[in-house]
Amino acid sequence: MSQSILVTGGAGFIGSHVVRRLVNRYPDYRIVNLDKLTYAGNLENLRDIENKPNYTFVKADILDLENIRALFRDFKFDGVIHLAAESHVDRSLTNPTEFSATNITGTLHLLIASKESWGSDKRKRYYQISTDEVYGSAHDGSKFTETTPIDPKSPYSASKASADHFVHAYFNSFGLPALISRCSNNYGPNHFPEKLIPLMIHNIITHKPLPVYGKGENVRDWLFVEDHASAIDAIFHKATPGSVYNIGGNNEWKNIDLVKYLCRLMDQKLQRADGTSEKLITYVTDRPGHDLRYAIDSTKLQSDLGWKPSVTFEQGLEKTVDWYLANAAWLSNVTSGAYQAYYNKMYSGR
Ligand code: NAD
Ligand code: DAU
Hints:
Elements: E1 3-8, H1 13-25, E2 29-35, E3 55-59, H2 65-75, E4 79-82, H3 89-94, H4 96-118, E5 125-131, H5 155-174, E6 178-183, E7 185-187, H6 196-205, E8 210-213, E9 219-224, H7 225-238, E10 244-247, E11 252-254, H8 255-269, E12 281-284, H9 299-305, H10 313-326, H11 328-334, H12 338-347
Parallel strand pairs: 1-2, 1-4, 2-3, 4-5, 5-6, 6-10, 7-9, 8-12
Antiparallel strand pairs: 9-11
């Protein structure tokens, strides 16, 4: 094997697409997927590649530093792509300590182990998968660039911003060859139905209310998850240590417009009368501190590394809907058990 790469959080939504891409495109790399398998981690996401000879799964917690050190000794990693995180803003509002532990301390553990193994060896790579939410809310007309000041507003984004600062500190203090990318909202197959798009798809299928926060005026930029994975691949292989890249779809939607578009698409796919799904839209109490708008400028990634998205939003959303309709068992498995309690706590009486 020419390289040994640790991917954390590879059983989650984005991580599963990153692992699949690396395993398939680089048969001479050993890809080690480390995941704790929280409620968001699901090995079903990787069934198609689990028997490939260059793939290894390790069930582990990034909070267990001694185990992380042991894995660095055993697998002699040349690179780390760190995705493992608590990722849902709503959960961070009620459970901030878990976000602080996983997202900040967990990141620090990976930095400690990387520095102990590599020092400042520029042939190695530590790559932090961050989020556009660290920039806070974008003002009218403006977009986040890589030099926009960090201004996180939720416990989730505060934990991710703190992790970014640690990554920068390790680059600055110890010369650790580190990279950071900050992406906008992803959508696509394997997305856990606590997030807007898969939650709406699930509720439309099951004829449940579609809970739109506030007036639905908040704006998000959406990117198909496989295009995020291709950007991660390009940045990991081509970016210079110390660099930061924004990743986005140049595809801003008001939540209510997106939900209505999805309703029309689902009516067609499910052969229901036009307007059936839209009648399920229910405006509910807003998320506290809800960032109004995320808007990302990914010019640097496009001009430096030649990356561009492979699908339009319309194509990506149709692929996504088709995937959920073809994978009813996946959806049913992840929405049984603890999901119902979460859903009731989050949405009933709201
Ligand atoms: P996800 O919640 O779907 O998956 C997170 C994965 O991390 C899960 O498999 C989970 O089991 C694992 N994990 C959690 N805690 C762990 C621990 N202590 N030790 C080991 N594994 C642990 O998340 P996602 O949406 O795929 O996001 C992945 C990364 O990308 C996160 O760092 C997130 O902040 C970032 N990101 C997400 C988006 C998005 O739209 N989803 C956009 C930009 C950046
Ligand atoms: O911007 C990148 C971020 O995108 C990632 O860092 C996060 O990990 C990811 O979860 C996502 O955060 P958001 O908070 O933007 O995603 P979410 O799907 O939770 O919400 C999208 C928008 O939809 C947001 O404005 C809140 C709104 N919403 C969400 C849910 C779950 C609703 O109106 N109703 C809902 O039921």
